[in-house]
Amino acid sequence: MMETINHKIRNKLTPLKNIIALIEKYENATNGEDKRKTIEFIINSKALLQKSLDELLEIE
Predict the structure, then answer these.
(1) Contact 5, 59 (CB under 8 A)
(2) At residue 15, does pLDDT exceed 90?
(3) What is the model's pTM?
(4) Which is nearest to 52 in space by CA: 23, 26, 14?
(5) Of 23, 28, 31, 32, which residue is most buried, by most CB within 10 angstroms?
């Protein structure tokens, strides 16, 4: 079964949605350790987000 363009785009946007959720988690964190861990997750997700955005730009 061929993926539709809409489905491909939705899949590539998932890392962005995850980053937004992490930012919200950071905003709601009550202590420094939780904030530090959340920032680590965001930084570690940077490469995946960049890859997804690059692939999104290639979808025809």
Answers:
(1) yes
(2) no
(3) 0.71
(4) 14
(5) 23
